Amino acid sequence: MSAAPDHKPTFADLSLSDRIGKAAPYLLIPVLVVLGFLAIGSTSSWLTLTVSGLAMGMMIFIMASGLTLVFGLMDIINFGHGAFISVGAFVGITVLIWLGGWTGAPSLVLNVAAVLLAVVAAMCVTGALGWGFERVIVRPVYGAHLKQILVTVGGLIVIEQLIHVVWGPEEIFLNRPETLKGAITFAGAAIERYRLLAVAVGLVLFIAMRLVLRRTRIGLIVRAGVQNGEMVEALGYRLRLVFIGVFIAGSALAGLGGVMWGLYQEVITAGMGEEMMILVFIVVIIGGLGSVEGAFIGALLVGLLQNYIAFLEPKLALISNIGLMTAVLMWRPQGMMPVVKAK
Protein backbone atom coordinates (compact mmCIF):
# COMPACT_ATOMS: atom_id res chain seq x y z
CA MET A 1 0.00 0.00 0.00
CA SER A 2 1.48 3.35 -1.05
CA ALA A 3 2.05 6.11 1.44
CA ALA A 4 -0.25 9.07 1.46
CA PRO A 5 1.19 12.08 -0.36
CA ASP A 6 2.69 14.86 1.70
CA HIS A 7 0.69 18.06 1.86
CA LYS A 8 1.89 21.57 2.52
CA PRO A 9 1.07 22.39 6.16
CA THR A 10 -1.73 24.87 6.69
CA PHE A 11 -1.48 27.85 9.03
CA ALA A 12 -3.27 25.82 11.74
CA ASP A 13 -0.62 23.09 11.50
CA LEU A 14 2.28 25.46 12.16
CA SER A 15 3.97 25.88 15.52
CA LEU A 16 3.46 29.08 17.49
CA SER A 17 6.83 30.52 16.46
CA ASP A 18 6.15 29.74 12.79
CA ARG A 19 2.72 31.33 13.02
CA ILE A 20 4.20 34.50 14.50
CA GLY A 21 6.86 34.59 11.80
CA LYS A 22 4.27 34.17 9.03
CA ALA A 23 1.97 36.84 10.50
CA ALA A 24 4.77 39.28 11.38
CA PRO A 25 4.65 41.34 8.13
CA TYR A 26 0.93 41.95 8.61
CA LEU A 27 1.52 43.11 12.20
CA LEU A 28 4.09 45.74 11.25
CA ILE A 29 1.51 48.26 10.07
CA PRO A 30 -0.64 48.34 13.26
CA VAL A 31 2.56 48.34 15.36
CA LEU A 32 3.90 51.33 13.41
CA VAL A 33 0.55 53.15 13.73
CA VAL A 34 0.52 52.62 17.51
CA LEU A 35 4.14 53.74 17.86
CA GLY A 36 3.34 56.80 15.78
CA PHE A 37 0.46 57.68 18.08
CA LEU A 38 2.65 57.31 21.18
CA ALA A 39 5.42 59.44 19.64
CA ILE A 40 3.17 62.21 18.28
CA GLY A 41 0.87 62.52 21.28
CA SER A 42 -1.78 64.70 19.63
CA THR A 43 -4.74 62.65 18.37
CA SER A 44 -5.68 65.14 15.65
CA SER A 45 -2.12 65.41 14.29
CA TRP A 46 -1.68 61.64 14.43
CA LEU A 47 -4.93 61.03 12.54
CA THR A 48 -4.04 63.58 9.85
CA LEU A 49 -0.56 62.10 9.39
CA THR A 50 -1.91 58.53 9.36
CA VAL A 51 -4.42 59.24 6.59
CA SER A 52 -1.75 61.13 4.66
CA GLY A 53 0.66 58.22 5.07
CA LEU A 54 -1.95 55.68 3.98
CA ALA A 55 -2.81 57.78 0.91
CA MET A 56 0.84 58.14 -0.01
CA GLY A 57 1.41 54.42 0.52
CA MET A 58 -1.58 53.45 -1.62
CA MET A 59 -0.35 55.56 -4.54
CA ILE A 60 3.15 54.10 -4.27
CA PHE A 61 1.58 50.62 -4.21
CA ILE A 62 -0.32 51.36 -7.42
CA MET A 63 2.96 52.24 -9.12
CA ALA A 64 4.92 49.35 -7.58
CA SER A 65 2.41 46.51 -7.94
CA GLY A 66 2.94 46.00 -11.66
CA LEU A 67 6.71 46.29 -11.35
CA THR A 68 6.96 43.60 -8.68
CA LEU A 69 5.08 41.13 -10.90
CA VAL A 70 7.36 41.99 -13.81
CA PHE A 71 10.35 41.40 -11.54
CA GLY A 72 9.05 38.08 -10.31
CA LEU A 73 7.58 36.68 -13.54
CA MET A 74 9.92 38.04 -16.20
CA ASP A 75 13.15 38.59 -14.23
CA ILE A 76 13.31 42.07 -15.78
CA ILE A 77 14.99 45.02 -14.07
CA ASN A 78 12.96 47.79 -15.69
CA PHE A 79 14.20 51.26 -14.78
CA GLY A 80 12.02 52.56 -17.59
CA HIS A 81 8.95 52.00 -15.39
CA GLY A 82 9.32 55.60 -14.20
CA ALA A 83 8.71 56.85 -17.74
CA PHE A 84 5.23 55.29 -17.70
CA ILE A 85 4.48 57.16 -14.47
CA SER A 86 5.44 60.48 -16.07
CA VAL A 87 3.60 59.83 -19.33
CA GLY A 88 0.48 58.72 -17.46
CA ALA A 89 0.55 61.92 -15.40
CA PHE A 90 0.89 64.16 -18.46
CA VAL A 91 -1.78 62.36 -20.47
CA GLY A 92 -4.22 62.30 -17.54
CA ILE A 93 -3.68 65.94 -16.62
CA THR A 94 -4.05 66.96 -20.29
CA VAL A 95 -7.46 65.26 -20.35
CA LEU A 96 -8.45 67.01 -17.11
CA ILE A 97 -7.43 70.36 -18.61
CA TRP A 98 -9.57 69.64 -21.68
CA LEU A 99 -12.45 68.80 -19.36
CA GLY A 100 -12.04 72.01 -17.37
CA GLY A 101 -15.78 72.63 -17.44
CA TRP A 102 -16.37 69.30 -15.67
CA THR A 103 -13.57 69.65 -13.13
CA GLY A 104 -14.57 73.19 -12.27
CA ALA A 105 -18.24 72.34 -11.71
CA PRO A 106 -19.42 71.81 -8.11
CA SER A 107 -20.74 68.37 -9.10
CA LEU A 108 -19.30 65.15 -7.70
CA VAL A 109 -20.62 63.17 -10.68
CA LEU A 110 -18.93 65.42 -13.26
CA ASN A 111 -15.71 65.60 -11.24
CA VAL A 112 -15.47 61.83 -10.84
CA ALA A 113 -16.35 61.30 -14.52
CA ALA A 114 -13.53 63.66 -15.54
CA VAL A 115 -11.02 61.84 -13.33
CA LEU A 116 -12.18 58.45 -14.65
CA LEU A 117 -11.76 59.57 -18.26
CA ALA A 118 -8.30 60.91 -17.44
CA VAL A 119 -7.34 57.62 -15.78
CA VAL A 120 -8.65 55.53 -18.68
CA ALA A 121 -6.77 57.66 -21.21
CA ALA A 122 -3.55 57.48 -19.16
CA MET A 123 -3.79 53.70 -18.71
CA CYS A 124 -4.50 53.10 -22.41
CA VAL A 125 -1.56 55.24 -23.54
CA THR A 126 0.91 53.81 -21.01
CA GLY A 127 -0.30 50.27 -21.66
CA ALA A 128 0.35 50.73 -25.39
CA LEU A 129 3.69 52.37 -24.61
CA GLY A 130 4.57 49.41 -22.39
CA TRP A 131 3.77 46.99 -25.22
CA GLY A 132 6.14 48.83 -27.55
CA PHE A 133 8.78 49.19 -24.83
CA GLU A 134 8.76 45.44 -24.19
CA ARG A 135 9.02 44.53 -27.87
CA VAL A 136 11.68 47.05 -28.88
CA ILE A 137 13.80 47.61 -25.77
CA VAL A 138 13.28 44.80 -23.25
CA ARG A 139 12.84 41.67 -25.39
CA PRO A 140 16.35 41.71 -26.92
CA VAL A 141 17.96 41.72 -23.45
CA TYR A 142 16.01 38.99 -21.63
CA GLY A 143 18.29 37.27 -19.12
CA ALA A 144 21.03 39.94 -19.27
CA HIS A 145 20.58 42.12 -16.18
CA LEU A 146 23.37 44.59 -16.86
CA LYS A 147 22.11 45.22 -20.38
CA GLN A 148 18.56 45.56 -19.01
CA ILE A 149 19.66 48.33 -16.66
CA LEU A 150 21.50 50.18 -19.43
CA VAL A 151 18.79 49.99 -22.09
CA THR A 152 15.84 50.67 -19.76
CA VAL A 153 17.60 53.70 -18.25
CA GLY A 154 18.25 54.84 -21.81
CA GLY A 155 14.57 54.34 -22.64
CA LEU A 156 13.61 56.36 -19.57
CA ILE A 157 15.81 59.27 -20.68
CA VAL A 158 14.47 59.18 -24.25
CA ILE A 159 10.84 59.20 -23.09
CA GLU A 160 11.52 62.06 -20.68
CA GLN A 161 12.97 64.08 -23.54
CA LEU A 162 9.94 63.26 -25.71
CA ILE A 163 7.75 64.63 -22.89
CA HIS A 164 9.74 67.86 -23.12
CA VAL A 165 9.11 67.95 -26.87
CA VAL A 166 5.34 67.35 -26.59
CA TRP A 167 4.45 69.22 -23.39
CA GLY A 168 7.44 71.53 -22.94
CA PRO A 169 10.16 71.60 -20.26
CA GLU A 170 8.26 73.60 -17.67
CA GLU A 171 6.37 72.29 -14.66
CA ILE A 172 2.61 72.13 -15.08
CA PHE A 173 0.58 73.22 -12.09
CA LEU A 174 -2.98 72.04 -11.75
CA ASN A 175 -6.04 72.26 -9.56
CA ARG A 176 -7.94 69.25 -8.31
CA PRO A 177 -11.59 68.87 -9.30
CA GLU A 178 -13.83 71.13 -7.26
CA THR A 179 -15.42 68.52 -5.00
CA LEU A 180 -12.01 66.92 -4.25
CA LYS A 181 -10.56 70.15 -2.90
CA GLY A 182 -10.46 71.00 0.77
CA ALA A 183 -10.76 68.77 3.78
CA ILE A 184 -13.28 67.30 6.16
CA THR A 185 -12.98 67.55 9.92
CA PHE A 186 -13.06 64.36 11.97
CA ALA A 187 -12.14 64.10 15.67
CA GLY A 188 -10.49 67.50 15.41
CA ALA A 189 -8.31 66.44 12.48
CA ALA A 190 -8.40 67.96 9.00
CA ILE A 191 -8.41 65.15 6.44
CA GLU A 192 -8.14 66.05 2.77
CA ARG A 193 -10.88 64.62 0.57
CA TYR A 194 -8.46 63.61 -2.15
CA ARG A 195 -6.39 61.56 0.27
CA LEU A 196 -9.48 59.61 1.27
CA LEU A 197 -10.13 58.94 -2.43
CA ALA A 198 -6.54 57.76 -2.89
CA VAL A 199 -6.88 55.34 0.04
CA ALA A 200 -10.12 53.97 -1.42
CA VAL A 201 -8.66 53.53 -4.93
CA GLY A 202 -5.55 51.79 -3.63
CA LEU A 203 -7.56 49.47 -1.42
CA VAL A 204 -9.96 48.54 -4.23
CA LEU A 205 -7.02 47.88 -6.58
CA PHE A 206 -5.29 45.65 -4.02
CA ILE A 207 -8.45 43.61 -3.43
CA ALA A 208 -9.04 43.33 -7.18
CA MET A 209 -5.48 42.18 -7.86
CA ARG A 210 -5.64 39.68 -5.04
CA LEU A 211 -8.90 38.23 -6.36
CA VAL A 212 -7.58 38.03 -9.92
CA LEU A 213 -4.35 36.34 -8.85
CA ARG A 214 -6.05 33.86 -6.52
CA ARG A 215 -9.48 33.19 -8.04
CA THR A 216 -8.99 33.21 -11.82
CA ARG A 217 -7.22 30.95 -14.30
CA ILE A 218 -4.97 33.71 -15.60
CA GLY A 219 -4.05 34.57 -12.00
CA LEU A 220 -3.14 30.94 -11.38
CA ILE A 221 -0.93 30.92 -14.47
CA VAL A 222 0.78 34.15 -13.41
CA ARG A 223 1.47 32.89 -9.88
CA ALA A 224 2.67 29.55 -11.20
CA GLY A 225 4.87 31.33 -13.75
CA VAL A 226 6.47 33.41 -11.00
CA GLN A 227 7.34 30.26 -9.04
CA ASN A 228 8.27 27.87 -11.89
CA GLY A 229 8.00 29.22 -15.41
CA GLU A 230 9.51 26.16 -17.06
CA MET A 231 6.86 23.87 -15.59
CA VAL A 232 4.06 26.20 -16.77
CA GLU A 233 5.43 26.12 -20.32
CA ALA A 234 5.78 22.32 -20.14
CA LEU A 235 2.05 22.13 -19.39
CA GLY A 236 1.34 23.83 -22.72
CA TYR A 237 0.65 27.41 -21.63
CA ARG A 238 2.12 30.21 -23.73
CA LEU A 239 3.96 31.98 -20.96
CA ARG A 240 5.37 34.53 -23.40
CA LEU A 241 1.89 35.97 -23.92
CA VAL A 242 1.44 36.09 -20.16
CA PHE A 243 4.74 37.98 -19.94
CA ILE A 244 3.52 40.58 -22.41
CA GLY A 245 0.13 40.89 -20.68
CA VAL A 246 1.74 41.41 -17.27
CA PHE A 247 4.14 44.00 -18.69
CA ILE A 248 1.28 45.92 -20.32
CA ALA A 249 -0.81 45.74 -17.14
CA GLY A 250 2.14 46.93 -15.04
CA SER A 251 2.71 49.85 -17.41
CA ALA A 252 -0.98 50.78 -17.29
CA LEU A 253 -0.93 50.71 -13.47
CA ALA A 254 2.09 53.01 -13.56
CA GLY A 255 0.03 55.41 -15.67
CA LEU A 256 -2.80 55.25 -13.12
CA GLY A 257 -0.30 55.94 -10.35
CA GLY A 258 1.08 58.88 -12.30
CA VAL A 259 -2.34 60.52 -12.55
CA MET A 260 -3.04 59.93 -8.86
CA TRP A 261 0.36 61.26 -7.80
CA GLY A 262 0.08 64.32 -10.05
CA LEU A 263 -3.27 65.25 -8.48
CA TYR A 264 -1.77 64.58 -5.04
CA GLN A 265 1.18 66.94 -5.61
CA GLU A 266 -0.80 69.36 -7.83
CA VAL A 267 2.25 69.72 -10.09
CA ILE A 268 3.80 67.42 -12.71
CA THR A 269 7.26 67.32 -14.30
CA ALA A 270 8.94 65.09 -16.86
CA GLY A 271 11.27 63.79 -14.15
CA MET A 272 8.58 62.90 -11.61
CA GLY A 273 8.60 59.23 -12.59
CA GLU A 274 12.36 58.99 -12.24
CA GLU A 275 12.12 60.52 -8.76
CA MET A 276 9.34 58.11 -7.73
CA MET A 277 11.34 55.07 -8.86
CA ILE A 278 13.47 55.30 -5.71
CA LEU A 279 10.43 54.73 -3.51
CA VAL A 280 8.98 52.16 -5.93
CA PHE A 281 12.14 50.04 -5.88
CA ILE A 282 12.37 50.31 -2.09
CA VAL A 283 8.81 49.01 -1.82
CA VAL A 284 9.46 46.12 -4.23
CA ILE A 285 12.62 45.13 -2.35
CA ILE A 286 10.97 45.41 1.07
CA GLY A 287 7.92 43.41 -0.01
CA GLY A 288 9.81 40.63 -1.78
CA LEU A 289 10.08 39.82 -5.48
CA GLY A 290 6.80 38.92 -7.13
CA SER A 291 4.64 39.55 -4.05
CA VAL A 292 1.66 41.87 -4.44
CA GLU A 293 0.83 41.49 -0.74
CA GLY A 294 4.42 42.30 0.16
CA ALA A 295 4.40 45.40 -2.06
CA PHE A 296 1.14 46.51 -0.43
CA ILE A 297 2.52 46.18 3.10
CA GLY A 298 5.84 47.73 2.10
CA ALA A 299 4.17 50.72 0.46
CA LEU A 300 2.03 51.42 3.53
CA LEU A 301 5.09 51.16 5.79
CA VAL A 302 7.00 53.60 3.58
CA GLY A 303 4.13 56.11 3.45
CA LEU A 304 3.37 55.99 7.17
CA LEU A 305 7.00 56.11 8.30
CA GLN A 306 7.88 59.01 6.02
CA ASN A 307 4.94 61.09 7.26
CA TYR A 308 5.57 60.32 10.94
CA ILE A 309 9.31 61.01 10.71
CA ALA A 310 8.80 64.21 8.68
CA PHE A 311 6.58 65.51 11.50
CA LEU A 312 8.76 64.37 14.40
CA GLU A 313 12.24 64.96 12.95
CA PRO A 314 12.18 66.51 9.45
CA LYS A 315 15.94 66.11 8.91
CA LEU A 316 15.63 62.33 9.16
CA ALA A 317 12.74 62.05 6.69
CA LEU A 318 15.10 61.78 3.70
CA ILE A 319 16.81 58.67 5.06
CA SER A 320 13.86 57.05 6.85
CA ASN A 321 12.96 54.80 3.91
CA ILE A 322 16.55 53.68 3.39
CA GLY A 323 16.68 52.85 7.10
CA LEU A 324 13.43 50.90 6.82
CA MET A 325 14.73 48.90 3.86
CA THR A 326 17.99 48.15 5.67
CA ALA A 327 16.15 46.96 8.77
CA VAL A 328 13.79 44.71 6.78
CA LEU A 329 16.62 43.16 4.76
CA MET A 330 18.61 42.47 7.91
CA TRP A 331 15.52 40.70 9.27
CA ARG A 332 14.51 38.96 6.03
CA PRO A 333 17.19 39.23 3.32
CA GLN A 334 14.76 38.30 0.51
CA GLY A 335 12.07 40.75 1.61
CA MET A 336 9.05 40.24 3.82
CA MET A 337 6.97 37.97 1.58
CA PRO A 338 9.03 36.86 -1.44
CA VAL A 339 7.28 34.67 -4.00
CA VAL A 340 10.52 33.86 -5.80
CA LYS A 341 14.09 33.77 -4.62
CA ALA A 342 16.27 36.69 -5.63
CA LYS A 343 18.16 35.76 -8.78
UniProtKB/TrEMBL annotation:
Chief location of this protein within or outside the cell: membrane
Transport found in the keyword field: yes
Pfam families cross-referenced by the UniProt entry: BPD_transp_2 (PF02653)
Family to which the UniProt record says this protein belongs: Belongs to the binding-protein-dependent transport system permease family. LivHM subfamily.
UniProt keyword annotation of Cell cycle present: no
Highest taxon above the source species: Bacteria
Compartmental location: Cell membrane
Keyword line: Amino-acid transport, Cell membrane, Membrane, Transmembrane, Transmembrane helix, Transport
Segments crossing the lipid bilayer: 23-40, 46-71, 83-102, 108-129, 149-167, 194-213, 241-264, 276-304, 316-333
Protein name in the entry: Branched-chain amino acid ABC transporter permease
Membrane-related topology note: Multi-pass membrane protein
